[in-house]
Amino acid sequence: MTDYFKLLNSPYFSIGSFLFFQQLGKFIKLDNYVSSLRLLYLGVQVTIVALSYLLIYKIRQKNDQTVLKYVEPASQSWDGTETADQLINTTVMDYDIAEVHKTVKQSAMGILLITFLHFKFGYVQPLLVQSILGFKTFLMTKEVRIHYWGSPTTGDLKRPFRLEAPFGMVNEKKQPKTDKGSIKKAEKAIKAE
After folding, report:
1. Which pTM does this prediction carry?
2. Residue 52 contacts by C-beta under 8 Å, 6 or more apart in sequence?
3. Tens digits of residue pLDDT in 20-41
4. Burial grade of 122 (CB within 10 A; 0-12, 13-18, 19 or more)
5. Pick from 93, 49, 85: which is nearest to 175 by CA?
6. Which of 2, 59, 181, 185 has its CA 20 to 30 A from that of 87?
7. Dihedral of CA 134/53/113/142: which sign?
8. 153-169 residue pLDDT tens
């Protein structure tokens, strides 16, 4: 059976659909529909943010207080120094809400970027592309798949979520650690302080 979530989340699908809508935008002569595209883009982004907060409401209603304990790997700051591994002790509800907030922040950064490109350089195609792909991106997030689509929390939907990057180029050391050895090591480091 085809896994539609994997297909739609594939970087190849994203690149292909982006190129398709870019060419469609050139074919239609979008410059004639600038005000309509602005309204479409604004409406889509407001809808996505509203759906995100509706998702947070749904997560709070489920009120899953299952304890989630994992180790956030060390991160490197801008000056090259590395922070220590950090033990995270939270609940499933709080973790999911934090992940939705991250998604909203990423959406806000995307909105700022598209708005800058449109008003500063006059690009119209990103308004069309992000109006369509914005929904696809939102509907394929892990939280939506779990709470709206009812997907089981196994595999890539197991909490804490693995970091993802295009073409799978994330270093394994940067992934959250859930094994007992890493958790005990982080707990000992906290007690030693």
Report:
1. 0.84
2. 100, 103, 104, 107, 138
3. 877 877 788 777 888 999 999 9
4. exposed
5. 85
6. 59
7. negative
8. 888 889 999 887 665 66
Whole-angstrom distance, CA of residue 163 vs CA of residue 89: 18
In this structure, are residues 104 and 123 in contact, taking their beta carbons and an 8 Å threshold? no
Separation CA 63–CA 144 (nearest Å): 16
Residue 131 and residue 41 in contact, taking contact as beta carbons nearer than 8 Å: yes
Structure tokens at 160: 């804490």
Q: CA 90, CA 143: separation in Å to the nearest integer? A: 16
The token duo for 114 is 């598209």
Q: How far is Cα 60 from Cα 93, in angstroms, rounded to an integer?
A: 7
Please name the residue that has the structure tokens 């059976």: 1
* Secondary structure (3-state) at 88: strand
DSSP 127: H
Token pair of 29 as six digits: 């002569």
DSSP label of 123: -
